[in-house]
Amino acid sequence: MQTPIYLDNSATTPLDPAVLEAMLPFLRGEFGNPASGTHALGRAASRAVEQARADVAKLVNAEPRDIAWTSGATESNNLAIKGAALAGRKRGKHLVTVQTEHKAVLDTMQWLEKQGFEVSYLAPRKNGLLDIETFRAALRPDTVLASVMLVNNEIGVIQDVAALGALCRANGTLFHVDAAQATGKVAIDLTQWPVDLMSLTAHKTYGPKGIGALYARRSPQVRLECQMHGGGHERGLRSGTLATHQIVGMGAALRIAGELMAEEVPRLRALRDRFWSRIKDVPGVILNGDLEQRIANNLNISLDIPNCDSLVTTLDDIAVSSTSACSTGGVSHVLQALGSDASIAGNSIRITVGRFNTVEEIDWAADYLRKKIEDCRAGRLAA
After folding, report:
1. Taking the CA of residue 375 as centre, how many other CA atoms within 13 Å lie in the half-sphere pointing to its CB?
2. Which of 96, 314, 343, 359 has a CA-to-CA distance to 5 between 20 and 30 Å?
């Protein structure tokens, strides 16, 4: 068995070979600037950008004109949250989010607190899901924006953003959703969901790093204060020369995700469940988050086992993670928000299977992890 076996697909995914093939022409001869409409090379780049915009819009059932390119979900989150809060501050300065959000949301909210905004950080239930009534009670007449992620990046639970968005719409509050972990795993319909802003990225869905998008509703138009000033690109929301090759890669990745989702999601769920079936009876293994209202490829476990405080650092033959790849701390704020104490929250393992994993890899990796845990319990694990 070739190692390490990659099981960290929520951190990033390998580039799909078909995505690479779509990108290569724009790294070679098709090098024009999409804003250079006076010649053929520029027009060809512009057409490629607009096709990719349409492909991204199709996956989330949105209008292409509502999609603006960014460098990734972190920038999209910043643009959505800061942009909406600053544009709406005359109406109110109250914001709502959840304690288990990605750091790109939580840190942005903390920055806005320094600018005079008030933020309500809601605690989820122990299964990671947000109580609808808790959310309803948090909304106020001066709440200008609420931000709730569709799929949690650590425990994989799926929030009911359609219901939450309906509450926001009734309150006159803008609703932002971080959907970085959801594309290709959850059906998204922005013609039906009352969502005003949605953050997307490519590299969680077998596309390139460094490219993302923000859905910003135009009818009626969501007002945003832009965060990057320059040439007025992307209808004034995000200035900067467009990275055609990366944009084409994101378009291809999300198009492929849409084409494969009906068959890929059940396959990933079967692999995930196969892995879980081989370790769930080990004493001291705790599943984090709701198992049903959860994306198909995610497992997150904690180990309440003596001698296993640093197990994840010894797993040389499989690639897994202990917290979000974007977190610099050693203890998961998500698991602590669910009520885990620091010692257990700090001893967690996130396992996320992906498109290119096989049954043989899953069996080998699960047996390998089980043996490592049993070695921990027996005190046989070398530091």
Report:
1. 15
2. 343
Q: Which two tokens stand for residue 290?
A: 């709701």
Task: Give the strand pairing for 285-287 and 318-319.
Answer: unpaired
All structural domains of the chain, each given as residue ranges with its CATH number in brackets, are: 5-12+261-375 (3.90.1150.10), 17-256 (3.40.640.10)
Q: What pLDDT, on a 0 to 100 scale, did the predictor assign at position 206?
A: 98
| Contact criterion met (CB below 8 Å) for 219 and 184 | no
Whether 226 sits among the annotated catalytic residues: the reply is no
Contacts of 222 (CB under 8 A, 6+ apart): 84, 174, 196, 197, 216
The predicted-structure confidence for 188-211, as pLDDT tens digits, reads as follows 999 999 999 999 999 999 999 999
Residue range 133-166, pLDDT digits in tens = 999 999 999 999 999 999 999 999 999 999 999 9
Q: What is the pLDDT of residue 307?
A: 67
3-state helix vs strand vs coil in the chain, percent to 5: 40, 15, 45
pLDDT surpasses 90 at 234: no
Tokens, residue 77: 């989150």
- Print burial letters for 348-381: b (CB count within 10 Å at least 16), e (below 16): bbbbbbbbebeeebbebbbebbeebbebbbeeeb
